[in-house]
Amino acid sequence: MKNPRKPPRQPERNSSRYRYDILCVGEPLYELNQSGDDLCYEPGFGGDTSNCAVAAARQGASVAYFTALGKDVFGREFLKMWAREGVDSDAVILRENSPTGLYLVSHGPVGHEFTYFRKDSAASLMRPEEIPADLIRNSALLHVSGISQAISDSASRAVLKAIDLARQQDVRVSYDPNLRLKLWPLNRAREVIHQAMALCDIALPGLEDAVQLTGLDEPQEMVEFYLNLGAEIVALSLGPDGMMLGTPGRVEKIGGWELKTVDATGAGDTFDGAFLTELVRGRLPSDAARYANAAAAISTTGYGAVSPMPQREDVEALLAGLVA
Description:
Strand order of the largest sheet: 6-4-1-10-11-12-13-14-15
Radius of gyration: 18 Å
CATH class: Alpha Beta
Structural class: alpha/beta
Order of helices and strands: EEEHEEHEEEEHEHHEHEHHEEEHHH
CATH architecture: 3-Layer(aba) Sandwich
Distance between the termini: 45 Å
Number of domains: 1
Strand content: 15-25%
Oligomer: single chain
């Protein structure tokens, strides 16, 4: 049964009410990504909601980010990176005795493999009372994810607090499940993620995650599941095949792009950032999805999560047929 609530307020990008188009809340992770076939790991930046923030900023959105970092070299590098990308990080908490999370990406015959070092990280210690209500109030859209709820009970409650504050202010909420079964058992993940997604306006599941979370086999059924759960827009990623878009009364498939893929690490986050940016700019969901598919495809042509994320002119060139 669909979650009863009043329709969300359409964000107005130029409204004087909002300082930011998008606020992302979650866990950043410093990245070491294997380059080529050897054991050389290139430094970079990761963490799904941080990646989304950067992707959105590169598409021209005004973006803010909230998390907690350690007072260490990796935390300082994140602050520098967000400043370069134009992502406001003024509200980020710096913890003296907790590290910034770290992960490694290795590449093999079955794709990329992740190794994480995030236990007791600064972000995992986020608490509900630390969520910045003023920052949410000044944003047109809040974006959160299942990973941020999986890293600890306090972080999970912090995400729910952020969602609650957004709903109180008629701020739209988007949610990407980003299921990680190394972090929590499936039954617990289903319970928490479905609780959060019943409160969101925009659902951004991937196909593999949706299969496990819903128990369904057909993409259209998965889209309808999330529409019935409460979302008004569902963008189900199908990887290289594109995505399936659901809005009340309509489900349609939107094709992807065939580019030379070398690393898909940040493709889903790039899609999220580009898709949300286009929605906030007032574009129809179908047009936003086509744009986001192109952005995600470009992001797979280089190594790392952030480095290959395209700028708006790159995406527009691909859409215009100027890129082979």
